[in-house]
Amino acid sequence: MLPLILASSSRYRKSLLERLHLPFESAAPDVDETPLQNEQPEQLTRRLALAKAQALQARYPAHLIIGSDQVVLLDNELVSKPGTHAEAREQLTRSSGKTLTFSTALCLLNSASGKHQVAMEPYSVTFRELNTDQIERYLLQDKPYDCAGSFKSEGFGISLIERMHGDDPNSLIGLPLIRLCQMLAQEGIYLP
């Protein structure tokens, strides 16, 4: 088995990959994430997932490199990581009663052969109607300031949600494990 590299510094992606009980290393790729002119969100995230894996190819020439990227849309506008309490409050206020669409791209690059697989995993989350007090209580509990959409579905954020729809809830957190297992099988790594 070629060694696995996770092309990410995200603690959330690292935690997800650990669930597969495979040895891996993490390395942060140096990739400009600026959208290209007229680039659609799904095109952007596919391009960046591949670019993140390719950015580590020279440093890891005989490895399987996992790249992932995610975009979140609310009312057809990109939603970023809030960074601050005030921005998270604003995002959740805008999300109240609405559906956010998460598009997570995944790339598995065999740096020895140059062969890569890229897939997109959509996931949608519909929020309950939320009042200001609920939003404040939630933010003080989970502090999701480094999470696009300003919530953690794997934490107390599940209480904000009315329904979710998609094939792999892990894609919501940033790494579609079901699709990754399928990609690894294409490289001869069968789980469990």
Top keywords for this entry?
Maf protein; alpha/beta; single chain; 192 residues; seven-stranded mixed sheet; 6 helices; elongated
- Detail the poorly predicted runs: none
Q: Which structural class do you get from the secondary structure elements?
A: alpha/beta
State the CATH class.
Alpha Beta
Percent range of helical residues: 25-40%
Number of strands: 7
Count of DSSP helices?
Answer: 6
The average pLDDT is 97
- The CATH architecture can be given as Alpha-Beta Complex
What does this structure look like?
The protein is of the alpha/beta class and 192 residues long. It has a single domain, classed as Maf protein (Alpha-Beta Complex), CATH 3.90.950.10. Helix content is 31%, strand content 26%. It is built from six helices and seven strands. The protein has helices at 11-18, 41-55, 85-95, 132-142, 169-173, 177-186; strands spanning 4-6, 24-26, 64-74, 77-79, 99-110, 116-127, 161-166. Strands 1, 2, 3, 4, 5, 6 and 7 form a seven-stranded mixed sheet that branches. Strand 3 and strand 4 form a beta hairpin. Helix 3 crosses helix 4. The longest helix has 15 residues, at 41-55. It is elongated. Its main location: cytoplasm. One of its GO terms (biological process) is nucleotide metabolic process. One of its GO terms (molecular function) is nucleoside triphosphate diphosphatase activity. This is Maf-like protein. Keywords: Cytoplasm, Hydrolase, Nucleotide metabolism.
Ordered list of secondary-structure elements with their pairings:
Elements: E1 4-6, H1 11-18, E2 24-26, H2 41-55, E3 64-74, E4 77-79, H3 85-95, E5 99-110, E6 116-127, H4 132-142, E7 161-166, H5 169-173, H6 177-186
Parallel strand pairs: 1-2, 1-3
Antiparallel strand pairs: 3-4, 3-5, 5-6, 6-7
